[in-house]
Amino acid sequence: MAFGPAAAVYAFLVDQPAWREDCRALGALVRGARVLDLGIGPGTGAVEMARAAKDTRHVGLDRSASMLRRAARAARAGAVTLPLVRGDALRLPVRDGALDGATGHSVLYLLPDPAAALEELRRALRPGGRVAFLEPRRQGAPLAATLAGGARFAAAMILWRGMSRLHRRYDEAELESLLSGAGFTGARAWPVLGGHGVMATAERA
């Protein structure tokens, strides 16, 4: 629902300074001529990453046509080149080793089989290619700290935690283990978004 009929609400909630700041941090972890943004959504994160890293070319992938249309509008408004592809994370439309890296914001927790998606992503990455993900954190953050971030931030975090409760959440060790289990090396994770999110990075051996 949030990624189809209610895409406008989702796009409004994530279009905020805290979300944008962590998207820029996410993008800084991955560089290259061909970086896939997995589950691009409304394009907020990918546009921030593209604007912050001129030496990196991002390509967005999503299953939702509504989100891809929003991402296209966001790219035009942000004056960035952002090729978009409609596709499935479990069957990436690229050859082996075609990608230099990949990012994902709020995508693994929604997938029916995140381990299989990471294995597929590893196939598509060249040796040495890096990945970086930002996912909902298991522990969350105190309500007072959430409210201190402002009404829009609080609404986004409450919605995000509500959605993740229906799917899954990760702590730092779990996300590192997920990446390592899919064959990535050097996995490390740390809390972000005031403790509501967990960011992680790893490399394809």
Could you describe the 3D structure shown?
- The chain is α/β, with parallel strands linked by helices and 205 residues long.
- The chain is built from eight helices and seven strands.
- The chain has helices at 7-14, 17-28, 44-52, 65-77, 114-124, 143-148, 151-166, 172-181; strands spanning 35-38, 58-62, 84-86, 99-105, 125-136, 184-192, 197-204.
- Helix 5 (114-124) links the parallel strand 4 and strand 5.
Counting helices, strands and paired strands, the structural category is alpha/beta
β-strand number: 7
Strand arrangement in the largest pleated sheet = 3-2-1-4-5-7-6
**N- and C-termini, Cα separation:** 37 Å
Discrete helix count: 8
Would you give the CATH topology? Answer: Rossmann fold
Low-confidence stretches: none
Order of helices and strands: HHEHEHEEHEHHHEE
Q: How many domains is the backbone divided into?
A: 1
Per CATH, the superfamily is Vaccinia Virus protein VP39
The largest sheet, given as strand count, sense and whether it forms a barrel, is: 7 strands, mixed
CATH class: Alpha Beta
Rg from C-alpha positions?
16 Å
Global morphology: globular
Q: Report the mean per-residue pLDDT as an integer.
A: 91
* Share of β-strand residues: 15-25%
CATH architectural category: 3-Layer(aba) Sandwich
The helical percent reads 40-55%
Please describe the structure with a list of short key phrases separated by commas or semicolons:
transferase, Rossmann fold, 41% helix, 8 helices, alpha/beta, SAM-dependent_MTases_sf, Methyltransf_11, 205 residues, 7-stranded mixed sheet, globular
